[in-house]
Amino acid sequence: MPFNLKSKIENPKSGEYKCLADLNLYDSPECTRLATQAAVGRHLRIISNDNDVETQNFASLQVCLCEDDYPGWLSPTDLSLLQSATVLYEATLFSQSQIKKLLAEVIVFTQKAMQQANYYLWGGTVAPNYDCSGLMQAAFASVGIWLPRDAYQQEEFTQPISTAELEVGDLVFFGTPQKATHVGLYLADNYYIHSSGKEKGRNGIAIDCLTEQGDAVSQSYYQQLRGAGRVVKSYEPQRR
């Protein structure tokens, strides 16, 4: 069933929809700067709208993604790519031992993503172009485990560990003393995989080393190392 804006306005409680295609979500009503992406099959809720149904003057819609509670704005050109959700999203619970068994698949996802032609895309969570936390979220989501969207949120969500405790599949965080601004996935032997920017990184997915002995890019990130975190649960959305 295609998205019916008029019925949404008349019945605002029935506000959960399913994405029929990969969609861009923006950080403002103008829809000019990418905030995140929603892969086909994801669920979202409409928060508010300023649409004039009678004149068909459809403005952007403020939405929130159900799996990670991430807000954004949807372009009116993408309204036809939403379908009313017949089954509401429910988070799947994972034990720490279940997550550990799935980490090898998470790593395989990132390595396959690296083999595709790609570049760093701010806000990217859909193949082939990712930002740092978007790659982490997509990799874990590929096995059903949800992380929050942004690097600083992922740092807060994971179980803090020291870098001396790093195990395969842990997350490593970089940034300033005040906030995590970058994240990668630990592989082994002081190597991690991440998507980094064009100006100070690899402009896409690559493997770097977590030591002072790497090249200029590796050294730059190593100097910004904040710590590490272990994924021990899957994100549970707030109840609405």
From TrEMBL:
<dbReference type="InterPro" id="IPR051202">
    <property type="entry name" value="Peptidase_C40"/>
</dbReference>
<dbReference type="InterPro" id="IPR041382">
    <property type="entry name" value="SH3_16"/>
</dbReference>
<keyword id="KW-0378">Hydrolase</keyword>
<comment type="similarity">
    <text>Belongs to the peptidase C40 family.</text>
</comment>
<protein>
    <submittedName>
        <fullName>C40 family peptidase</fullName>
    </submittedName>
</protein>
<feature type="domain" description="NlpC/P60">
    <location>
        <begin position="101"/>
        <end position="233"/>
    </location>
</feature>
<dbReference type="Pfam" id="PF18348">
    <property type="entry name" value="SH3_16"/>
</dbReference>
<keyword id="KW-0645">Protease</keyword>
<dbReference type="InterPro" id="IPR000064">
    <property type="entry name" value="NLP_P60_dom"/>
</dbReference>
<dbReference type="Pfam" id="PF00877">
    <property type="entry name" value="NLPC_P60"/>
</dbReference>
<dbReference type="InterPro" id="IPR038765">
    <property type="entry name" value="Papain-like_cys_pep_sf"/>
</dbReference>
<keyword id="KW-0788">Thiol protease</keyword>
